[in-house]
Design brief:
Elements: H1 21-28, E1 32-36, E2 39-42, H2 44-63, E3 67-68, E4 74-76, H3 77-83, E5 94-97, E6 103-106, H4 111-121, E7 130-139, E8 154-164, H5 167-187, E9 192-196, E10 206-213, E11 219-224, H6 242-253, E12 257-259, H7 265-268, E13 276-291, H8 293-298, E14 301-303, E15 309-311, E16 313-320, H9 321-331, E17 333-334, E18 337-338, E19 349-353, H10 359-374, E20 379-382, H11 388-398, E21 402-406, H12 408-412, E22 416-420, E23 426-429, H13 431-443
Parallel strand pairs: 3-7, 19-20, 19-21
Antiparallel strand pairs: 1-2, 4-6, 5-6, 7-8, 8-16, 9-10, 10-13, 11-12, 11-13, 13-16, 14-15, 17-18, 21-22, 22-23
Length: 452
């Protein structure tokens, strides 16, 4: 993409309403525009990152054996009355009547709807285990929406639901989700710590939430510092293996990590003092096992192998897709702007032409653009007739991980400058070597062949 042809309405000044880093930088980088309180239009740059995050979530869900689908945003209030949550969920749920007087709602979550779907079609244990998920817009009518996409009223969420014949099988699904979420966050350049949590209005006895450490986090967290050394890395996980998934879960959850809601001072004090940590955290996902509560109320029963009619064991698993974008910025920025991890960046590499209109510099930039594109990468070429300082400031603000700078002086020596946004380090390379280096870096971030 050539910047002269792109829609990137960057701002030089920080809007007064932005209270946290991610909100300020998303507005300044021309990623979002507020439509009303807690509701945003996603402008091209923000939309590209949002879709990259969504793609990674899809890929890791499908890798774990989960099946994508799509449910509507508007739901019937009747289902929620059957589950008993229609009145208990609270004023965050937007309720309304259609023109026929039927009670409807804008879905904040989908336990009722997915259970009704499965109850209509799944009648035998032979169809199990089954995990269905979708990525869909949700609405929760926050009293004071703030912090941009971190706490909006409308948000994009992945919510998945497992259906199993027994508690043991459902807990394997729980562990499988925990592992798949860890891999999902790592691919986005995040370290998300699983913490024992409160189930809230979803219900259930087993629940962990995933928090990214950040100064602006809404929750206070207490944890054993050893947990921050853990990573899945390139481990080949067999999601069908009960033992493997349990082992990974035990590795990550055996160390103390709690939010302030579930913090146990006595347990925390058992950790050696030098490893005790407290910080702020941003919730980016949560998993639940809640047994047969919804299946019993909404008629999701199957015939077991012994011929008995039994309710399905269920769990739900959510990732805040749009919220993740804000969390990544909170965890990865500096005073110049955003620093995107390679896995989610809107463009793989920026090309800055220091002397637009110079025949040799223009030709070199065009050649770099074509060469990067030939490797399946998407560069952003700043071909504007603007001073170099302004071009560098824009590239730093929007946070592309790598930048190739082209100028007449370097070209006389046969080199361009390759710069890392994260470290600020630069090196002079031939144009061919710079392209090869960038292509090599992104080879490790190739999409999983998920079919999405």
């Amino acid at each position: 993409m050539r910047l002269s042809r792109y829609f990137l309405p960057v701002l030089k000044e920080t809007p007064a309403e932005a209270q946290i880093v991610s909100h300020r930088l998303m507005l300044r980088a021309g990623m979002i525009r507020q439509a009303s309180a807690g509701i945003y239009s996603w402008l091209p740059l923000g939309y590209k990152v949002l879709r990259n995050i969504e793609r990674i979530v899809h890929e890791e869900q499908i890798r774990a054996g989960h099946i994508p689908m799509l449910m509507p945003t508007v739901q019937s209030g009747e289902l929620w009355q059957k589950s008993g949550r229609h009145n208990s969920y609270g004023p965050e749920m937007l309720r309304f009547h259609d023109r026929h007087g039927r009670e409807m709602l804008y879905g904040p979550t989908n336990e009722e709807m997915i259970t009704d779907i499965v109850a209509s079609y799944v009648t035998s244990y032979k169809a199990l285990p089954l995990t269905l998920y979708h990525i869909q817009w949700k609405f929760r009518d926050e009293v004071r929406p703030r912090f941009g996409v971190m706490r909006g009223r409308e948000f994009l969420m992945k919510d998945g639901y497992n259906f199993d014949l027994s508690k043991e099988a459902a807990l394997h699904a729980y562990n499988r989700h925990l592992v798949s979420y860890l891999r999902t966050y790592e691919r986005m350049g995040l370290q998300a710590i699983p913490m024992r949590a409160d189930s809230g209005p979803i219900g259930g006895d087993y629940t962990h939430e995933f928090l990214v450490l950040a100064e602006t986090g809404e929750s206070e967290v207490f944890y054993d510092s050893e947990i921050t050394d853990l990573t899945l890395g390139n481990r080949d996980i067999d999601y069908d293996s009960v033992d493997q998934c349990q082992a990974v879960m035990d590795e990550f959850t055996s160390r103390y990590a709690r939010t302030d809601e579930t913090h146990d001072t006595a347990e925390f004090d058992k950790i050696p003092a030098e490893r005790q940590r407290s910080a702020r955290g941003i919730e980016v996902g949560q998993i639940f096992y809640f047994g047969t509560e919804y299946s019993e109320k909404l008629g999701a029963y199957v015939q077991s192998d012994s011929g008995e009619r039994v309710p399905l064991h269920m769990g739900s698993h959510g990732i805040g897709v749009s919220r993740l974008l804000g969390a990544i910025i909170e965890a990865s920025h500096d005073d110049k702007g955003i620093i995107w991890p390679e896995g989610v960046t809107p463009f793989h590499c920026g090309i800055v032409n220091l002397k637009q209109g110079d025949a040799e510099a223009d030709a070199a930039c065009e050649s770099l653009y074509d060469a990067l594109s030939g490797h399946g990468l998407e560069p952003l070429y700043d071909d504007r007739d603007e001073r170099a300082g302004g071009k560098f400031a824009t590239m730093d603000l929007i946070g592309l991980p790598w930048r190739i700078t082209v100028g007449p002086r370097g070209l006389k020596n046969g080199v361009v400058e390759l710069t890392s946004r994260r470290t600020g380090e630069s090196e002079e390379l031939s144009p061919e070597a710079a392209v090869a280096r960038v292509a090599e870096i992104y080879a490790a971030h190739k999409p999983v062949n998920s079919g999405v």
